[in-house]
Design a protein that fits this description.
Helix content: 25-40%
Structural class: alpha+beta
Strand order of the largest sheet: 5-6-7-8-9
Number of helices: 5
Amino acid sequence: MNLYEESQFKNNSKSQDKKVIITIVVLLVVLLFVAIGIIFAINYLKKQELKLYIDGAKSNFSEKMFIIDEDDIYVSIDGLAQKVGYVTNNGEYKHKFDEDTTKCYLDNDYETASYILDSDIMYKKLAENSSSAYKSDYEYYQLSKPVKQIDGKLYTTLDGIARGCNIAASYDSENNKISIYTLPYLLQTYSTKIKDAVAAEDMSFENQKAILYNMIVVKNDSDKYGVSDLAGNTIIGKKYKEITFIEG
């Protein structure tokens, strides 16, 4: 091989090496953009996926727990009630031995809540062992939408289940997230934050429910009761021997 041919060979070799390096760089850039695209796609899909948080912790749920109907979110009464400590029964509380599946009532140790298909009225009643003077009264509530039946299960809206299960419930459309806070969690949180708040374990169930309406019972050293909002501002001064919150 003469000097000219050797020089040409070296130039061709360098040119090929350069092309290989450029090809590798281009491939790496393409792979980087693909990886970034995949990451964005995964994050987008995660954001689109409906998420449920109960008392700040992510909770699993069945596919049919929530049904989105236009701008309304319908919740399986039975499905969510079980997650927040209620037992669901067929029929209506006023006729508790009825097995009518177009009606249901929820039970815990303190209260029952009844729902009826196609009705936008639900009612609650304190348990018979309640010490309240109002325990014999039914409390009726207007729902934003009537109760639905889907695949044999009764559904109500998010505000409807919140009323019946004594929870705070909200929907974050931007992150497609439903947040639920139970009554015990709210009591534990705010009774330690608000000055002079009555301890959760010393509060009657009726007074516990006041927290769902931005109120909490407080008392002074003389055992005189009052009411503050959840920011600590006085609503009713601490001057009463007894206070009972009547939800209805």
